[in-house]
Write a structure and sequence with these properties.
By secondary structure, the chain is mainly beta. The protein has two helices and twelve strands; from the N terminus they run ααββββββββββββ.
Length: about 210
């Protein structure tokens, strides 16, 4: 699927991967789970570890629907967010590649991620894509302080390739998977949510 003019801009996708600094992780709760009920601005979610979470959606909450995309949509200098895991030989293999819309704010970095044990997130700009025996090897530039560094990440036939389109609270239906990059806790223990992703064609990785 090609990116369309309605591809959801910065708000949700940037929120999805832009809160990955150590300080942000310490201050915010990341949510991966399944919707149980929506009542007004209160969304009840069963987290992937079985916890019951109460999400307080802001009146202007930004909802993004996760849809399929194609590696052909990733051109040189396209901003991507890649979740990866190490292979036995030490190379990184992509679990998911998320395409960011052109011209939108983007937090470039590489660091640990919590999708699965020993996983990483690389936010950066594609430089090269070279076909190999096991798949397509991407070279991605990312920021490390005041320097630009590179990671080579293998895209395989099993890699999920996705992007995000604009949605609304009407898309938040019971049984669907959701992802929140980071939400602060309110005094009553609920989570203050400004942006959320929900499965549309495919679920956010859980």
């Amino acid at each position: 699927m090609k990116a369309t003019p309605h591809i959801f801009a910065a708000a949700v996708v940037a929120a999805a991967f832009g809160l990955s600094s150590v300080s942000a992780q310490a201050q915010n709760v990341r949510v991966r789970g399944t919707i149980e009920k929506l009542d007004g601005n209160t969304l009840m979610v069963k987290s992937r570890d079985g916890a019951d979470l109460k999400l307080a959606l802001k009146d202007n909450v930004r909802v993004g629907g996760v849809i399929k995309a194609n590696l052909a949509d990733v051109k040189p200098d396209t901003n991507v967010a890649i979740t990866s895991k190490p292979r036995p030989d030490g190379t990184l293999e992509a679990v998911e590649l998320r395409i960011f819309p052109a011209g939108q704010p983007f937090n470039s970095f590489h660091g640990d991620w919590d999708l699965m044990p020993n996983s990483f997130m690389t936010n950066g700009a594609l430089q090269t894509s070279v076909a190999g025996v096991d798949g397509q090897m991407l070279t991605v530039d990312y920021k490390a302080g005041d320097k630009t560094e590179q990671k080579k990440i293998l895209i395989t036939p099993q890699t999920i390739i996705a992007t995000t389109v604009a949605g609304s609270k009407a898309d938040l239906k019971p049984g669907l998977h959701v992802f929140v990059a980071g939400a602060p806790k309110l005094p009553d223990g609920s989570l203050d949510v400004a942006a959320i992703q929900v499965e549309k064609e495919i679920p956010p990785p859980q």
